[in-house]
Structure to design on (354 residues):
């Protein structure tokens, strides 16, 4: 009997693993359809506080939705305009910057040769291409603005989501015959909305400080690097590092090592202050995900959906965790994703050690 149960569990595990593989493959293949939907959904989540505030002021739902969407259109149009204008100028100047950077890199290798440190120039060039950082900027911005460029589809999704938002709890309660579905939705909405709202405010502040600081230091395209810092600040762990690389290299090309060090210290000061003090103060420990899980989720969602997946890696993982917590067979995955181990339940059966 036990052997049969073991075989059944093994078959269920294999079937579940195969289903997960098929699901992941399908989600990856359908990225062109899914990414605008996800973008619209998360924009609606961020917009819900404004919509709720307008409704509390006795503004009718249609007018409140229209006003909320107008605010979003203004923000998106501003971001696309700033990114497009700055990136166009940077793209024209990028070959010059890359040539200067390559020259500095060759001078560094020559200096190392003079110090008795011999390195294969071909091998080092294959392993480390200093101009690649500028290429990465284009790839990241194109991926993000590519989704934002589908403005009509995204805005339609936002409008429909906002209209439906107030009725979702009642629908879930009627569909599942209880309050479990409604409570799960409320928890997802509250936690994701809180995370995105706080992260957006901190990212805006980060981008503004970076832009002003780089402008004072004389670094070209300070607004572009501020926008890049704003966008990449949504990416946990790696975002702030990736945002610092292009302006540090650009300062090195423009002014030399001293100014590049000043730019690096600017990013360190911003990230230490905001990442270690401001963000934990406002978010507390409510994220509910371990650091390892956050990093792995960054890699996974980035592999799935590129830059947009990296930006949304934390809220997507939070949603998956909350959904799994309410399942019997897969709750163990939610426990592994959690930042803290579950509290041990006391042994009340009377069979424990005396």
């Amino acid at each position: 009997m036990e052997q049969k149960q073991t075989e059944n569990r093994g078959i269920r595990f294999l079937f579940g693993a195969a289903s997960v593989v098929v699901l992941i493959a399908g989600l990856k293949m359908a990225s062109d359809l899914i990414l605008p939907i996800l973008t619209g959904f998360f924009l609606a989540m961020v917009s819900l506080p404004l919509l709720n505030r307008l409704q509390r002021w006795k503004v009718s739902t249609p007018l409140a939705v229209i006003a909320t969407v107008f605010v979003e259109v203004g923000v998106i149009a501003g971001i696309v305009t700033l990114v497009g204008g700055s990136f166009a100028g940077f793209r024209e100047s990028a070959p010059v910057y890359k040539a200067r950077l390559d020259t500095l890199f060759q001078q560094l290798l020559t200096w190392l040769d003079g110090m008795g440190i011999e390195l294969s120039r071909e091998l080092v060039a294959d392993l480390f291409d200093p101009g690649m950082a500028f290429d990465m900027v284009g790839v990241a911005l194109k991926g993000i603005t590519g989704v934002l460029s589908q403005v009509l589809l995204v805005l339609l999704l936002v409008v429909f989501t906002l209209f439906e938002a107030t009725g979702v709890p009642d629908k879930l309660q009627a569909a599942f015959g209880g309050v479990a579905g409604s409570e799960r939705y409320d928890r997802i909405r509250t936690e994701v909305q809180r995370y995105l709202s706080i992260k957006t405010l901190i990212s805006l502040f980060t981008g503004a400080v970076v832009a002003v600081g780089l402008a004072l230091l004389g670094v070209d395209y300070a607004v572009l690097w501020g926008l890049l810092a704003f966008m990449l600040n949504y990416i946990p762990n790696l975002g702030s590092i990736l945002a610092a690389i292009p302006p540090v290299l650009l300062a090195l090309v423009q002014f030399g090592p001293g100014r590049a060090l000043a730019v690096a210290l600017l990013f360190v000061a911003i990230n230490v202050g905001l990442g270690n003090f401001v963000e934990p103060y406002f978010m507390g420990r409510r994220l509910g995900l371990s650091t390892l899980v956050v990093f792995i989720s960054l890699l996974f969602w980035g592999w799935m959906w590129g830059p947009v997946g990296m930006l949304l890696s934390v809220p997507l993982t939070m949603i998956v965790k909350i959904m799994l917590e309410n399942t019997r067979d897969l709750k163990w995955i939610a426990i592994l994703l959690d930042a803290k181990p579950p509290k041990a339940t006391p042994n009340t059966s009377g069979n424990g050690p005396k």
Q: What stands out?
A: The two ends are 33 Å apart (CA to CA). The chain has a mean pLDDT of 78. DSSP finds 14 helices and no strands in the chain. The CA atoms of residues 28 and 104 lie 40 Å apart.
